[in-house]
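HUMAN:
Sorry, I am quite new to this. Are you able to go through these amino acid letters and fold codes? The numbers rather puzzle me.
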Amino acid sequence: MNVLFVCSGNSKNGISPIIQNQAESLKQIGCIIDFYTINGRGLLGYLANVPKLKRIIQKKKILVHAHYSFSALVATLAGAKPLVVSLMGSDLHMQRWYKWLLRKFSKSCWDITIVKSKGMKDSFELDDVIVIPNGVDLTRFTVSDKKVARCRLGWSAEKTHLLFAADPCRYEKNYNLAVNALKILDDPNIELHFLDNVEPVLMPLLYGASDIVLLCSFREGSPNVIKEALACNCLIVSTDVGDVRWVFGNTEGCYIASFDPHEFAAKIKMAISFLHEKGRTEGRQRILQLGLDAVSIAKRISQVYTIAAGSNLNHT
């Protein structure tokens, strides 16, 4: 099937790695993916892309998959049909009037709406949306040799390494919780790392070198960090956001904590004890059990495309 991905091209690295990875997994199962990247910031910047996208759609007569709500609005106004829309975690936290608008578009203009977690579905109050989390590429995110990874990064072989897998400048990622928890632990053998202009290609190496991955966010949809870390059999301490609790299941070595620094510190201490006792989790098996590998997710999305295309044929 031929599909046109409509998404932002405004980030420093161009297309979001999440969207790029999804495109690659769809190509693996036979889909032909092209991109229309939106250049321009804010609602007006996005809307300026409507005429150009409309010309492309009219010429190609192609199924459109829009990622994030602003891109979906552009595709809708450009007359995209069939139109599949993926709403992401950040869309969940828009103002009330904007979420109302998204509900209206979802019911009347979009053939199928995809959200990333049941929590997102409940928040948007739409019964007919489909929950499909982002998948994780198990060929990239693998269980690797920790000593080799640390040597490549120049990390100490003696210390316990914690990875805050986000930019600490992003308020919603709540870096202060990690910092305050480590102050409480007051352990000089613990070293905290964070992401600072890190290329996506380096993420598997960072997971491989880390003892424990931290997710401290105030809010998430279906955080990819959790699935990637699980695929690498990392230990994890996370706040109870998005679908983290569901993804963890009963995986030993993965801990849910509140936003209280003392509780978060206690869970890190439990993770360190698990580290010394067992070393790694069996998180990769959990990813396979849930069908969250990239290929399985791609097959589910491909089925959505078939339904959307068939629905439009039935109405023409």
Summary: Residues 294-314 form the longest helix (21 residues). The radius of gyration is 21 Å. The chain has a mean pLDDT of 92. DSSP finds 14 helices and eleven strands in the chain.
